[in-house]
Each structure stands twice: as structure tokens, then as C-alpha cells.
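Reproducibility note. Readers wishing to regenerate the assembly model reported in the main text can use the exact inputs given here. Chain order matters: entities are listed in the order in which they were concatenated for prediction.
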Amino acid sequence: MMTEGGQPRSRSFYVLGFFFLLFLAFLYGPMIVIFVLSFQGPNGGMSFPMVGTSTTWFQGLLQATGRVGDIPSAFQRSLGLALLAAALTAVICVSAGMGFRRRFPGAALLFYTAVASLVMPSLFVSFGIALGFKELGWRTGLFTSGLGAQLTWTLPFGLMITFATIGRFDRRYEEAATDLGANSWQRFRDIIFPIILPGIIGVALFGFTLSYDEFARSSLTVGNQNTLPLEIWALTTAATSPVLFALGTVTTVVSFTVLTLAMLTIGLIVRRRAGGRLSAERSAHG
Amino acid sequence: MSLAAPLLRSAPSTKAASRKPARPWPNWLVSWLQVGPLALVLLFMFVMPLIFVVVVSFFDYERVQIYPAFLLDNYAEIFTSAVTGRLYLKTLEYAAIVEAITLVLGFFVAYYLTFHVRTLRWRIILMLACTIPFFTSNVIRMISWIPFLGRNGILNDAVMATHLVNQPLDFLLFSDFAVILAYVHIFTLMMVAPIVNSMSKIDRSLIAAARDAGANEWMIVRDIILPLSKTGMALGSVLVLTQVMGDYYIVRVLSGGKSAGVVSGIATQLNAFEYPPAAASSVVLLVIVLALVIGIFSIVDVRKELAE
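Running the prediction on these inputs yields the following C-alpha cells for the assembly.
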């Protein structure tokens, strides 16, 4: 059963492998169905059979009026909010991750507060923030209460990934830099930051997608302008046409694009680093 | 014992530390400056709003206005109302069923990935395949079940084609079945990732030794892998349970409004601007959720798992 090569595969490998494939089909099957259905012909309905194929429903998304609501503006708002959330998540989490490397009074309390924020039913956070703003006489808004609500969700996730990244960091590099006279800012800028950069990109990626797809925490805190998931939610109760699926396809493609870009960037960094090491070795031997 | 201790352990630090130039500020202050932004966001957007909720749960209300007071009426209503009782039972029922399914499913998926997939390349590819849906919208993944399960949906067509039934099955969509299916679909990944993390830390030589001593695969799973991946299972369980107990939109759409949990009840009260009873209900559910989380965390040392 184990990883050593040469050993024959046990029967459990094939049984479990079969179940694993079923699991993947379960994960992706429904998504593939809505991708296909979003190309439904103009006279088609919300399920099979396909009545021809068309891009009618995608065009429907671009019309800013009618029952569908203003999808393009909601998309822009969500994108802006997600980019800001990603940047803030990366900066705040890396900074906090560096802080957590040392013991300090209150560290455990802060950590458990972050965990509590992660496991808290999202609607409560949303409700609490909305209530607080109302009682203080402030207006809820996309980039104030909305952003804050999303950060209570993206930051704890980002913090976990930061811990994993910084935990793997080999401190000897840092000590070498100290021995060579680097101050703490130089140590961070020239040694730690480049080494943990792939992890930071991962944190930003989480920040982006968790914000971009966030629903419950935004629901009461974004003010009178909806984000994309809130628009989609409104559609699920109102729409009876495949325009809902077209929207699902578009937003999933956006998620996939961001994910791919992040992966490619990480891959590029890792490969360049490996290449550098290789050429360094070659010149050392040559 | 500080959280950062496991991180510090990797450093043979005392010697190096003494060589560092003296800082103008004490270490604890530097740390607090670094974690400051995180602490501020959590304080203003999480701790204080929760305090607001707790305070308002004792308030009086009339139509859309709320009045400061110290009433226990909102709580009394929760514990005496049969409707609320049913909501709590429903939530716990969903949570228990989904927890059981995702735990078994998550364990075997993680086990297969970690111990049966031999090359690192394939392990990464398959792990990615399992995590990618996590980066897409839950709302979209939820609605993607509608064309699948409906009366004219794919599943019904497939079942009809086998001629086992003459009529389309009605229980598939807008039912508890659909709700649980969607929960499992969306939340299993939160179980898989922590278990994989735990399993990948298991020393392979333990397993080799067990096999040399004559253990079969089942014994290895039962006596080595299961106990050593408990932390991951606990962490995954916490994530899954809290997500299911906090949900109100999946249950609403996929049960077709026929079923509701505690948070659905709260959402309804919020829409009617009945803030104090909604707050009281939130506090009660919160106590249940926290008790569950603390109960699970007390079995295993999750902090150690996260920091390593």
C-alpha cells in the first residue's frame, strides 16, 4: 500500500482510487452541468435538453437594466473590494506572522480571537457590525463595514497560511544576514520576504477569492450597493432562466483566472530559484 | 506556553540573539506593533460587534425601534417556543449527518492521497483537483445542484432510463436530501485539507515497521494512521460543523423553503427588524457552537498542529 516503488499495488488501491474518481466527479459534475447549460439556446430552459446553443444568456448579463439587476457594476464593485481585501490580507497577515514569531503577552488571546472569528457563524458577524454602525449612527458602506466584515473572514485564513509559510522558513539564513551586519529591516526586505514570497502570494490569493465569493458576512454590511454574490443570491430567488448559469460560469472563470495567475507566478518564482541554484552549482563545479 | 514557541524551536537562537544590535524598543512592543493591524481589525469588526449583539439581546423592541433595557424575555421566548426548539433540532440534525459523512469521506480521500498516490507530482495534481472548487463561489456551487436534481434533471433522467422507476423521483430536489448533498459537496474540502496535513506528518518508517511486523493495511489504518490524524480530523470537524450550523442560504434554496435552521430563523427576524430576539437567538447558538468547538479542541492540541 505504501509509497515504495516496486511493490505490487494492493486491491485497496484500486477500490479507493475508484472512490476517489467518484469523489472528483461529485465535486466537478454539477459545475460542468451549469457551464454547459449556460450556453442554452434562447428558447431553452433551466435544465436539459439543450435547445440549440447560444450566448444569449451571457449577453443578458451585460444589460444593466431589467429583472437581472446591474451585473456589470456589481462585478466591478466585487473586483475592487476583493483586490483591496487581498492586499490588506497579505500585508496584515505577514506582519502579524512576523510578530507571532516572538513570545509576547496576549499572543494566545489574539490567536484564539482569530480562530473564533473563523468559526463564528457569518451572519452573526454581519449582524453585529450592522447593529454597531446603526447604533453609532454611521452608515454601512462597501469599503467601510463591508470590507471590515470580509477581513474578519480572510484574515484568520490568511494567518493560518502565513504560519505554515513562516514555520518552514529556515532561520539560519536570517542569522547569516545578522552576522553580516544586516539590520532588522534589511533582514526582512532582502532575506525573509523573497524566501516567503510564494506563501505571501498564496495568502493574497486566499484573500482575493474568499472576499470575491463572500456572501453571508457581506449581506448586512455592504450598504445599498450589492456585491456580485449578493446579486447572484437575489437572482436565485427571482430568475427562471439560464442567465443565472451564465453568471455562474463567468464568475467561476474569473476565480479560475486569478487562481491560475497566482499558481503561474508561484511556479515562476520557484523555477527561477531552482534555475539560479543550478547555475550557481554549475559555475562552482565548472 | 506561547503559540510562537514551535516556530522558535527551529532556531538555535540564544547565541544569535545576543549578537543582534540592541533594539530601541522592547521585544513585546515590536511584536504588538506587528500584530497591531490584525488586533485592531478583530477588535473593531469582530469583538465589539459581538458585544453589541450580546447587549442588544437584553433590549426591548417595538416595531423597528429598539430600547435599552435589561429583559430576559427574548431568551425566555427561545426556551419556551416549540418552533424555535424544532429549528435547533433541525440544525443539530444537519450538523450531525454532514459531520459523519464528511468525516468518513474526508478521511478516505486524504488517506488515498497521502498513502496510495506514490509520486509527489501526482499527489500535488490530485490535491489541487480537490482544492480548486474551494476557490469558487459557494452560492454557484449550491445552485449547480438545481439542474442536476430537478424533476427533469440529469439524475432523474438517468434513473428513468434504467426503468427502475416509472415516475421521476420528487425527493431529490427541495428536500433534506438536496440540502445535505450540497453541504457535503461544499464542505468536504474543509475536512480533507486538515486531515491531509496531519497524515503527511506521519513518519513513514512507523508504517514500514508495522508492515514488517506483519500488520495488514486495516491494522495499520486503525492503529497508526487513525490515531495520528486525530488533530486534522478535529480541525476539519470544527470547520465543517461551524459552517453547517451557521448556514442559512443553502438550506433555504435547496429545501425550497420547506426546511430551516436556527440561523434561517435569525435571518427572518433580521429581515423583520426584530433585532433583540435575533440577538438572543444568536447568543444561544453561539454558546452551543463555542461549547462544541471547545469540546473538540480539548481532545487534541490544535494549536500545535497549526503552528507546525
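We highlight two features of this model. The first helix of chain A runs from residue 11 to 37. Residues 226 and 281 of chain A are 55 Å apart (CA to CA).
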